[in-house]
Each structure stands twice: as structure tokens, then as C-alpha cells.
Write a structure and sequence with these properties.
Mean pLDDT: 76
Radius of gyration: 20 Å
Structural class: mainly alpha
Shape: globular
Helix content: over 70%
């Protein structure tokens, strides 16, 4: 019974995480140094930095990648503190893009998307791009990266579907049912678990997607799923904190400001989880999975808009 539950759970989460990393890596390789140039030139004000952080995180499917890049720019003296703070605020909003896509119930198309991605990858191999990428025609390179990104997204959808499928088995298992009921009754455990798991796997989107899958089957309540969202936002700061250890004061400021923003937002909205659930339920009345995704978006947008004026204070200049 345990093996029949544990194996699909681990496999589903592994596919979620692998898909996320495949998308992140391929899109980063595609952007290359053009992303660095774009960020440096497009963040003249904190508001522009906010827009850039949102867009870059949505495109790269990784707020951590943009945060680490921002830390490097600040340490190099290319970005001011106010502009970097705007980017950090934007990363929290941009990271909602993946979970919002998943709330559209696209998991039924996971296998067809994987087949399309595989076809694109094979095509680049036939064009000799795989064996010698440096000499490949420029028009072929985007096809390779997009094929891998689509493949990663397909794996993510397949993993999400697997997690949805284990719901009935979890409800029949006394241990997991007790664990989920304990989390549903004490939302603080959801916050702590979401933070710890996100710090461990370096992907808040994967952890939130897992909670969406469990909420869709009724194993996890939407309130508990939202608590995991709050924790995941704290856990995602771990990568930036590690990246800032070897840099200067500016880089540490970026990492600590992200931690202060996300932890402060979690503390602010923890008593308001019921309100977040009610607001997201008006957008998706009969879909607990989508409610978790919408609550994440509402939470991150609200926190970023509340904190954005701080970047315009004189001491940030």
C-alpha cells in the first residue's frame, strides 16, 4: 500500500521538478547574455525594474535565477539598490505565471506536448545542431531551446497529473490521511513545510504545483494549500541568500530584502488566509487547484504593490 502510494508521489514530484529545471535551463541558455544587457538597460526606475523582474521571471520560469542575476549586477555596480529592489518585487509576481498556466487544466495535453517537443529536438539533431551547436544556423538554435522548454513544461504537466491521481490512495491510507488532516487543522505546519521543501528543492513553483495537485483531489484543503504558498515564498529566498554569501554588501541587501519582503508578506497574510481563499474562490468557485494558484497571484501582487513605494525612498538612491 505504501509503495503503491510513495512511488507515484515521488515520480510525480520528480517530473514536476525536472520539468521546471529543464524549462529554466533551456530558456536561460536561449537568453544568454542578452538577458543581462536587457535588464541593465531597462531598469532606469524601480517601477521599470518591477516590470523587468516580472517579465524575466515569467520567461525564465525561475524567480531564483533572476534574483541571483540581480545580486551579481548589484555586486558589479551595474544596478542601484532601488532598481534591484524593484526587480525583486517583480520576480514574485512573474513566478505566478507557471502555476496560473497549470490552473487551466492543461495536464491532459502533457503527452501530446511532449511528443511535439521531442519532434522539435529530433529535427535539430537532424540539422546537426545537437552535435555542433556553435556552428548551427542561428535560426535553428531557438528551436532547440524552445523544444526543450516545451518538453520541460510537458513533464511538469504529466507530473501534475500523477499527483492528482494519488488523491484517492492517500485518503485510503491512514498515516497520510492523518498527516493531511493535521496540516488542514494547523495551517502553520503548511507554512513551515512549504518553506522547508522549497529551500530543499530550490523551486517554489514545483512545491506549489504539488499542493495544487493535492487540493484538486480533496486531500489538501485550499486553505492548507495557500499556507504552503506562503511558506514556499519564504523558502525561495534560500537560493539568493546562499548566492550572496561571497559577494559585497549590495548583494546581501538584495538577498535580505527579498527575505524581508517574503517573510513579512507571509506574516501579514497568514491571519488573512481565509480572505485569500474567499477572493480566489470567486475567480474559480469549483476548482480548489485553481484557487491555490489564484491565491498565490493575489498574495504576490498585493505584497509587491505594498512594498514598491519603499524603493522610491531617498535612502535607496
Amino acid at each position: 500500500m505504501i509503495s503503491g502510494l510513495l512511488i507515484p508521489s515521488l515520480l510525480g514530484f520528480a517530473l514536476l521538478l525536472s520539468g521546471m529545471k529543464a524549462m529554466e535551463t533551456s530558456l536561460q541558455q536561449w537568453a544568454d547574455n542578452k538577458l543581462s544587457t536587457w535588464i541593465a538597460r531597462s531598469t532606469a526606475t524601480p517601477l521599470r525594474g518591477f516590470a523587468v523582474g516580472t517579465t524575466a521571471s515569467a520567461l525564465l520560469q525561475s524567480s531564483s535565477a533572476v534574483t541571483v542575476l540581480t545580486i551579481g549586477f548589484v555586486n558589479a555596480g551595474w544596478l542601484s539598490l532601488s532598481r534591484s529592489f524593484g526587480i525583486i518585487l517583480g520576480t514574485n509576481v512573474g513566478t505566478c505565471f507557471t502555476t496560473e498556466l497549470m490552473s487551466l487544466r492543461l495536464h491532459r495535453y502533457g503527452v501530446p506536448l511532449l511528443a511535439v517537443a521531442l519532434f522539435g529536438w529530433v529535427l535539430t539533431f537532424l540539422l546537426n545542431e545537437w552535435r555542433d551547436a556553435s556552428r548551427a544556423p542561428k535560426r535553428v538554435l531557438p528551436l532547440r531551446y524552445l523544444s526543450v522548454a516545451f518538453g520541460g513544461f510537458a513533464l511538469l504537466l504529466i507530473g501534475f497529473k500523477l499527483l492528482q491521481g494519488i488523491g484517492p490512495a492517500m485518503q485510503d491510507n491512514g498515516y497520510f490521511d492523518l498527516l493531511m488532516r493535521h496540516t488542514n487543522e494547523n495551517l502553520l505546519w503548511g507554512v513551515l513545510g512549504g518553506a522547508a521543501l522549497t529551500a530543499l528543492v530550490h523551486s517554489s513553483s514545483a512545491v506549489i504545483a504539488m499542493s495544487m495537485g493535492l487540493a484538486a483531489t480533496g486531500v489538501l484543503s485550499p486553505d492548507a494549500g495557500i499556507a504552503i504558498v506562503l511558506g514556499a515564498n519564504i523558502g525561495t529566498c534560500f537560493t539568493g541568500l546562499v548566492a550572496s554569501l561571497g559577494g559585497g554588501a549590495g548583494g546581501r541587501f538584495v538577498a535580505l530584502s527579498q527575505l524581508a519582503l517574503n517573510a513579512g508578506g507571509a506574516l501579514l497574510f497568514y491571519p488573512l488566509i481565509g480572505l485569500l481563499h474567499a477572493a480566489s474562490a470567486t475567480l474559480a468557485p469549483s476548482d480548489p487547484s485553481a484557487q491555490v494558484a489564484h491565491a498565490q497571484t493575489l498574495f504576490n501582487v498585493a505584497c509587491s504593490l505594498i512594498a514598491l513605494p519603499i524603493a522610491y525612498l531617498p535612502k535607496f538612491r
